[in-house]
């Protein structure tokens, strides 16, 4: 009838090199990659300790520290110089608090680390949640000085530890910090370790995933350099903080699972390509020429070229940050938070899910926004299935309670207004009226 059948061009513009990506990876990459979040009470010494770590590992040079020290002395706060390593603007310095999640990278012989810094101020909990949602493990900093530990444990220490655990972080390293203020007392260290262990076990951490390091961030004892303080070496000969960080089990890169990349950014009209995206590969692997499926649009596209950590590359694997130059897709099909996946095992698009969440506010069947990384969608808690025991995760109390109180753990069913690409074990955050009301794991 004169109408020509529309031919869909299914051939990529760039032919694949047909690499065995997993084999390429085996041969090249030997280092583990790990992201961690730093938690603890305000003033526990988190910023100072991380500044010390970066300084002793020579990530920050002496000149920068000297400059900070001068500035700090002018303000009469000389001990703040190390803490400023993690801070960016002068506004934050004058206020003496770290604000946003500062991203900092450092490497040991075994591991490339990213610190997702999390300040302890109450209002900064949302930042910590953002950090926790990307963390492989947590470093909990505890102020060992007399009285501080006791008030800290009742306050943010417990709250933070519960939060990271409820978001699926299973390993925690405890820096028993400022031990210089108690003359390196073993008794004090043991007392703190026992109390914190008991609490962490009740919060669902397994003893084998918990380690304690006696240290001083300010003086640099047992951070990178092994302490030579006789008061400490007489009873402790274990790992330094950095050795313990390196002990973390290799993060199992989900290499053989189906490809998943959440789009973090979209660039249009680039010199190299009119349409490119960036994001972290959550699972699987890819190479130039591969076909991808964009969800929820359900549109197929191809990898024209790619970059790993801003360097041109032929392939990439789970855990790496990539920029992908795409072909054969209209930008209207892509938005930040969408998922690029393998067309043969695509991610499901769902309108309802069950999650195990820790409540920060009262929860009832109510309107909420579901956040998952940069994806967020309006929805509502349709049903509270049950309350859960924090240690075992088993249901407690009566079925279908009407309300969840702050600090309780619960299983809830969430209904979304629009279908989104989401699958277990995603870490989700529920917000209402601009406040975080719960956080946890999709089941
Ligand atoms: P943050 O709020 O947890 O980030 O704590 P900061 O790093 O800002 O430290 C709070 C205060 O504790 C500052 O005055 C630090 O100089 C002090 N401080 C931090 N670490 C140590 C330590 O190991 N020993 C002693 N004596 N003081 C410390």
TrEMBL record:
Any one GO MF term held by the record is: GTP binding
Write down the species: Amorphotheca resinae ATCC 22711
Q: Where in the cell is it found?
A: Cytoplasm
* Superkingdom of the organism of origin: Eukaryota
Q: How does it assemble?
A: Component of the Dom34-Hbs1 complex, also named Pelota-HBS1L complex, composed of dom34 and hbs1.
Q: Name one GO cellular component term.
A: cytosol
Query: What is this protein called in UniProt?
Result: Elongation factor 1 alpha-like protein
GO BP annotation list: cytoplasmic translational termination; regulation of translation
Query: What family classification does the UniProt entry report for this protein?
Result: Belongs to the TRAFAC class translation factor GTPase superfamily. Classic translation factor GTPase family. EF-Tu/EF-1A subfamily.
């Amino acid at each position: 009838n004169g109408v020509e059948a529309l031919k869909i061009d299914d051939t990529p513009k760039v032919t694949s090199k047909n690499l065995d990506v997993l084999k390429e990876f085996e041969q090249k990459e030997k280092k583990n990659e790990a992201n961690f979040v730093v938690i603890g009470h305000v003033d526990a010494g988190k910023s100072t300790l991380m500044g010390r770590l970066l300084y002793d590992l020579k990530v920050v040079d002496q000149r920068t520290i000297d400059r900070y020290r001068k500035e700090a002395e002018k303000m009469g706060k000389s001990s703040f110089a190390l803490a400023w390593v993690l801070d960016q603007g002068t506004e934050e310095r004058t206020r003496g608090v770290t604000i946003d999640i500062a991203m900092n990278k450092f490497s040991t012989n075994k591991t490339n680390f990213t610190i997702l810094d999390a300040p302890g101020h109450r209002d900064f909990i949302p930042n910590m949640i953002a950090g926790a949602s990307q963390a492989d493990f947590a470093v909990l900093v505890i102020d060992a000085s007399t009285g501080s530990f006791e008030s800290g444990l009742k306050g943010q220490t417990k709250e933070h530890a519960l939060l990271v655990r409820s978001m699926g972080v299973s390993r925690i390293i405890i820096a028993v910090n400022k031990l210089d203020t108690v003359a390196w007392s073993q008794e004090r260290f043991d007392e703190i370790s026992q109390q914190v262990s008991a609490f962490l076990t009740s919060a669902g951490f397994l003893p084998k995933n918990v380690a304690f390091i006696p240290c001083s961030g300010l003086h640099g004892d047992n951070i990178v350099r092994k302490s030579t303080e006789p008061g400490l070496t007489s009873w402790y000969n274990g790992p330094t903080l950095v050795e313990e960080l390196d002990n973390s089990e290799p993060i199992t890169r989900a290499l053989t699972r189906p490809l998943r990349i959440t789009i973090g950014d979209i660039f249009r009209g680039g010199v190299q390509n009119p349409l490119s995206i960036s994001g972290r590969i959550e699972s699987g692997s890819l190479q130039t020429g591969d076909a991808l499926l964009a969800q929820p649009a359900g549109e197929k596209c191809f990898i024209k070229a790619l970059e790993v950590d801003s360097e041109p590359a032929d392939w990439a694997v789970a855990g790496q940050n990539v920029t992908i130059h795409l072909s054969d897709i209209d930008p209207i099909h892509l938005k930040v938070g969408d998922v690029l996946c393998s067309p043969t095992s695509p991610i499901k698009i769902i309108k309802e899910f069950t999650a195990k969440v820790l409540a920060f506010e009262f929860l009832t069947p109510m309107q909420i926004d579901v956040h998952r990384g940069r994806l967020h969608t309006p929805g509502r808690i349709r049903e509270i299935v049950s309350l859960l025991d924090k240690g075992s995760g088993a249901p407690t109390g009566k079925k279908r309670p009407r309300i969840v109180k702050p600090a309780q753990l619960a299983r809830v069913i969430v209904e979304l207004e629009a279908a989104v690409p989401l699958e277990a074990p995603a870490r989700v955050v529920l917000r209402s009226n601009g406040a975080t009301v719960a956080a946890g794991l999709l089941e």
